Amino acid sequence: MAPVGERVLFDGDYHHLDGVTGSYRRHLRGLAADLATAYPRASVVEIGSNHGVLLAELAARGLDVLGVDPNGFGAAPVVREFFGAELARRLSPVDIVAAVNTLAYVEDPGGFLTGVRAILRDGGVFVSESHYLPDLLETLQYDFFYHEHPRYYSLTALEAAFAPHGLEVFRVERIPTRGGSMRVHAGSPGESEVDESVAAVREFEKTLALTSEVTYRKFAARVADHRDRLRGLLAEVTRDGSRVAAATSPARATTLLTYCGLGPAELEFVSEVNPRKIGRFSPGAHLPVVAQERLCGPDQPEYALLLSWHIADELMSLLRADGFRGRFIVPLPEPVVV
Q1: At what angle do helices 109-119 and 155-162 cross, to 10 degrees?
Q2: Strand pairing partners for 99?
Q3: Which bin fits 195, alpha (ψ -120 to 50), beta or left (φ > 0)?
Q4: What pLDDT digit, counting tens, does each position of 297-331 carry?
Q5: Residue 23 Cα distances to 68, 101, 143, angstroms
Q6: For the chain, which end, N or C, has fewer CB atoms within 10 Å of the first or last residue's CB respectively?
């Protein structure tokens, strides 16, 4: 099945807010500090700027910023269009192009990268963050496979994509966000010294057989086994009449809930803090999305299934502080009651 076009997904009322969680805001603040230290007073275009958290942090450190996002908003200036080669011709050259968790969503990566290279000044840097394929496989993140993501990246794949567009990776970092990501720095070939981290990650990926069909068949078998174990755990904890609700409604939850066949028969509702989601229904599972106060209120269920399991520690702490007294179910990578 062909991926859904980006204009269908993002040209309108897009509900994701990338700075809702404290841990992710801290992550963006750290990225801004690193960029401001390495490139003081630089000019920056952030592609996929969302509601402007990174742009605000960069501007506060003296960088000249511009966002590009068809749904973007915030205090910084934003071009509300899709980025590509055509738009790049209308933008002024800059020192830094940033794309934080954007590449996986791009419908035309060739046009996107052509545009990136076109607006980079000599000596400029393209900084991107992407969910890291080896981490996705290792920790069984099949819930990250959904319609917004046409592709999933390793360093090997990114280098193959970058090279035809005159971009050379010169540094790579593995970072913990979204259950495991990589931050890649790239520029024109020969302009920056290539850090030893690039060769190290290349060698690591050679050991993983990422281009072998066998690797993904084994992953699929683990996914099927996980579905059975998660459903079994939910049946066990509700055998005495206990109730279960889900906490948070990230996009990745749609895959988990629908693949595992979880809906109103297993879960009472989904709680949220994002006002753009409250009052709606979860896709496929058709669970009502309610304010978090419902989960933490006087008639709270005995269990909360953490759909944003990749920030389980932070989420459990927040829910405890808001008054949730029950137990938590962390679905991945291993179903467990906490």
Answers
A1: 70
A2: 128
A3: beta
A4: 999 999 999 999 999 999 999 999 999 999 999 99
A5: 24, 15, 20
A6: N
pLDDT in tens, 155-193: 999 999 999 999 999 999 999 988 899 999 999 999 999
The answer on pLDDT for 19 being more than 70 is no
Q: Which domains does the chain have, with CATH numbers?
A: 6-211 (3.40.50.150), 238-337 (3.40.50.720)
Distance, in Å, from the CA atom of 98 to the CA atom of 67, rounded to the nearest integer, reads 9
- Which residues have C-beta within 8 Å of that of residue 161, sequence separation ≥ 6? 109, 113
SS3 139: coil
Residues counted in the chain: 338
**Inter-residue contact 183 to 194 (CB < 8 Å):** no
- 3-state secondary structure (DSSP) of residue 73: coil
Q: Where are the alpha helices (DSSP H) in the chain?
A: 6-10, 22-38, 53-60, 85-88, 109-119, 133-138, 155-162, 196-206, 213-237, 252-259, 292-296, 312-321
Q: 240: exposed, middle or buried (C-beta count within 10 Å: 0-12, 13-18, 19+)?
A: exposed
In 120-186, where does DSSP find H-type helix?
133-138, 155-162
